[in-house]
Amino acid sequence: MSTRSLHAFANVLADEARRIVRSRLRRGPSVRRKADLSPVTDIDLAVERRLRALIQRRFPEHGIVGEEFPRHQADAPFQWILDPIDGTLSLTHGLPFFGTIIGLHHRGRPVSGVIDFPMLGDRYHAARGLGAWRNRRRLRLRDVPAAKLPDEIISAADRSRFAKFGSAGAFDRLLRRHRHVRGYYDCIGHAYAAEGVIGAVVDYGVKLWDIAATRLLVEEAGGRFVIVRERGHGPATEYGIIAGKPRVVRWLERQFGVRSEE
Amino acid sequence: MSTRSLHAFANVLADEARRIVRSRLRRGPSVRRKADLSPVTDIDLAVERRLRALIQRRFPEHGIVGEEFPRHQADAPFQWILDPIDGTLSLTHGLPFFGTIIGLHHRGRPVSGVIDFPMLGDRYHAARGLGAWRNRRRLRLRDVPAAKLPDEIISAADRSRFAKFGSAGAFDRLLRRHRHVRGYYDCIGHAYAAEGVIGAVVDYGVKLWDIAATRLLVEEAGGRFVIVRERGHGPATEYGIIAGKPRVVRWLERQFGVRSEE
After folding, report:
1. Per-residue pLDDT for chain B (262 aa), expressed as one digit of tens each?
2. Chain A contact for B183, CB < 8 A?
3. What ipTM was reported for this prediction?
């Protein structure tokens, strides 16, 4: 099975997710709270259920790990990682900044990654060795010269996310040292970093499925992706990540107290 | 001249602005710094120049106050207030969250207001006594019951804007007291408040043209708009405003130390 075919199938999954989200949103989502008090809607569940069924029919030997249902075939070399709706707060409030994240890993290495924004009509996708795209346009990140770094927009998660990792001080310093810090929350910030409309995203408290497509998207676009924090273990592990244009990412690594290899 | 006709003309101006922005963005904007170091592009200038010409041809007796050029006929009863591009940082970075703001006031009272988002293809507009719309859909804000207030999204400007008014402490308290504080900067936050997808916007350091359409949009949608701070005088006056669903606005007025009439 070629990377190209696997990526084509990831895009079929994203098409199907988009169709379900759009048709269900017309009716209005019903929201309930999960055990951790985070909100989940009937749309999240419907999308993940459908994607799991499609994957199991086409690739019965593959594993699946998704946000809403138990893990399937954890030992399989190929693992599909699914976040049916990333940005549920946006979805439940009628804001279009939520997406479906689909990642395929082979023995832990990303093969295909998709972030689809059903209400924006935008899809960011990448395949290992083949490139990254927004819809049909190839994404190629241009790094910034040092003198232009202050003009870049940096997207950061809520201060409370950093505080949980003991990094509230680093967050506060970032606000003082950099002029354009904004919050493009959830997957839209990751997509913007791959596109280069922002210099980088620094996101703390994300789980495996939140970043299932980000590394491949950013790296295939020519950017840098680093995991700078880990907390907890197993599927509950929370990460701190920085991704975007290489110079901006390395500058942020220094702000957040991470020794970079350069 | 009826309110309806004046509002139709405001929409003609917005059509023309959208056409100019879209055609010039294809070439890429050229950016320079104004005296106050804020960025201005050739697109800002081209849009304001064209809107001024159209207004002067159709209503030679009306006044015009715009962000980029000197005031015209300051004593006229009808005043057009123009911000050709609100959200220049978004425009210069390739993000679609910038808009053209057009307001018409008669003896200080708003008659028509438009916020047009050329890249999103969305127009928020309102006419005194006739209602508020997003494109062709009428906007009607539903107020929130007290128990649901914590679920509302509140959009706030950068902390530095509040600090300038001595309100950094109120901003910090807001972050501690309310879970969903996000930054939908510039006019998109005002438009979202009129639409009700966020509970309210609190924006400090805005000038006359930044809020030229906001009061009418929010009030015609059934919301509440208040100016809570003023600093400086004349066209350089900077305001602090809160706008959105009445209960959320009143709650924010208390957070920012403003005595509300109720």
Report:
1. 899 999 999 999 999 999 999 999 988 788 888 777 777 889 999 999 999 999 999 999 999 999 889 999 999 999 999 999 999 999 999 999 999 999 999 999 999 999 999 999 999 999 999 999 999 999 999 999 999 999 999 999 988 899 999 999 999 999 999 999 999 999 999 999 999 999 999 999 999 999 999 999 999 999 999 999 999 998 789 999 999 999 999 999 999 987 554 3
2. yes
3. 0.90
CB A108: neighbour CB atoms within 10 A?
Answer: 7
Whether B3-138 shares its CATH topology with B146-255 is answered no
Domain boundaries, chain A: 3-138, 146-255
- Options 2.30.30.40, 3.40.190.80, 3.30.70.2190, 2.30.33.40; CATH of B146-255: 3.40.190.80
Name the residue type at position B172: D
Token representation of residue B165: 């008014």
Q: Which two tokens stand for residue A235?
A: 């599927």
Per the document, the length of chain B is 262
What is this structure's pTM? 0.93
A159–B197 C-beta distance less than 8 A: no
Q: Chain A, 202-241: which have a CB under 8 Å from a chain B CB?
A: none
CATH class as words, domain B3-138: alpha beta
Residue A154 to residue A184: CA distance in whole angstroms: 9
Nearest to A182 among B180, B183, B192 (CB): B183
Nearest CB among B95, B182, B197 relative to A185 is that of: B182
